[in-house]
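Incident log entry.

Two folding requests arrived from the same account within the same minute. Monitoring flagged them as a possible duplicate submission, but the sequences differ. Recording both here for audit purposes.

Request one:
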Amino acid sequence: MFRRASLVSHACLAPLLAFLAPECAAIAAPAAQAYPLQLLHGSRLLLAARVNGHDVQALLDSAAEATILDRAFARRIGLLPGEAVQGQGSGAAAFDAELVKGVSLEAVGLELPGQEVAVADLSDVGRRLLGRPIDVILGRELFDAARLEIDAGHRRIRVLAGGEQPRGTRLELVSEHGIETVPVSIEGHPAVRATFDLGNGAQVLVSRAYAQRLGLLDDGRAVHREAGGGLGGETRRETFVLKGLVIAGQAFTQVAAAIDPQASASDLNVGMSVLRYFVLTTDYAGRAVWLRPAR
């Protein structure tokens, strides 16, 4: 989420970042070629991309409202400073960023010209989460542009050809605060909306408000504090274990979880700790994802 630093109201820019202008529509490659994915530390998806014609390894993040470039990388490829804004990631504090227009993105055979991207210092998040520098976090622009099949187990991603029917259980996408969510239930409770977050390589996140409604922190289960957080710096979170979680009809037990203290958080956030066990087909334009168990 990004907010213009000059606005007293700090109005959210999600609507501006989430939609492409008609002249910026994606140009798809003719063949449904599979492209390699790198699964770093078993939980982070990296893929080859290009920014203004420059090759780069990008972190794939389905819950990023906009693609984010590391400031040093942006300067190396000649991007001029943009409009100052503030961003709110999953870390302890807001972070300074810039919005830069007219950037060309390419990945998995898709060309995305004329994009507005964010530029921020990614050195801390790269060091803590990846153990290496990260130049680009590739966000929802790619997911808005095409129907994607993501197979982390076989380390591949492809654009589904027109008319090819996705396999698996279909889940409706619903936007909350500019982020896409799917239905998930925990410990036998009715399903709630969970952020669909391929950029979350750690525990399932539970909003503090939802945890309090269910009494998850005062029902006798062990609760610890561990380091976590992404953009915005390291934070310490209360961690615990969920007895069960169900998504797309598949049940998981003894699921590691942590509290997300942000007021804007969805009730749950499900990332690669769970989603890596599925082959995923995303169709943001069609407002759906399909999950089928990986083999």
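Request two (distinct sequence, not a duplicate):
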Amino acid sequence: MTPTLKGRWQNRLILGLTVGALVALIFGVRYGDLAAVFGVLGYWLLLGLLWDVFYQRLQRRRWDGDWPAIFQLATGALEGAVLFWLISFLAARGLPTADGLPIVGTGLPLPRFVLFYVTLWLVTFLTMQGPLRILFPRWRFRGGEWWGR
């Protein structure tokens, strides 16, 4: 499947708000810090919507217009690094880290962030590569769009 930008956005939001929220809930309970974990999930969703615009433009430049799984793996690692940097940057600027927007910073150290992010990314990636293709076969032929086509 070659997703459209609208399809990328819809998939990111649907998977983030369902499967991602479940992963965040499990990690939030385990870490004892729901706010930090759901904060990372929120930033992952917001930053991902911007990334998807870039990915879509980059994908159009490829000769076959496709995005191989190895590229997805590389972009997932890049997204995680930028996400951690962004959250750390916002927290270091003195913005509120408990009740305000950044809500991460000191609440989720790097090892916990990496474990959570890798799990979140892998679960959403594997859900898209397996169950979605099996349960919703027509989804693939609509550029990954769930509605609006």
